[in-house]
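Intended use. Records like the one below are meant for learning the mapping from a protein sequence to its folded structure. Do not use them to infer anything beyond what is encoded.
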Amino acid sequence: MKKIYAREEHCIGCRLCEIHCSAAHSKYPDDLVKAFKKAEVLPVPRVKVEEDIPLSFALQCRHCEEPHCLTACITGAMYRDEKTGAILNDPERCVGCWTCIVVCPYGAIFRDEGVGKVVAKCDLCLEQGEPACVANCPNAALVLKEKGGE
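Structure written out for the chain above:
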């Protein structure tokens, strides 16, 4: 399965990954200006830049082999996509208990109360092909690759 890997030595902390992630999950995924100007509430980005100057890196779901969020989910909203292996969240089943947020060892699941009491997590932009954070990182600090691949 392909995963997103952060290369902190290339990250400049510009947060474009967060901006493009939020836009990609908005009503206007292909238009950054419309996403920010016309949306009443922008979706929470599924990636977060952590900084401790001079170090910075993007943090997002690791799509774990044995995901704690999946086993802790009380409604079955968290599930593994059989085709890609990605760990996804079904917002229709999510009741916002935040158990997945508590058990995630990476802190990569976020509250998104703006669009309903559900969680937001990286979905690898499966519907768009390449993840928005990877496609728009100006310094190639985020890469999508197979585990152990170059």
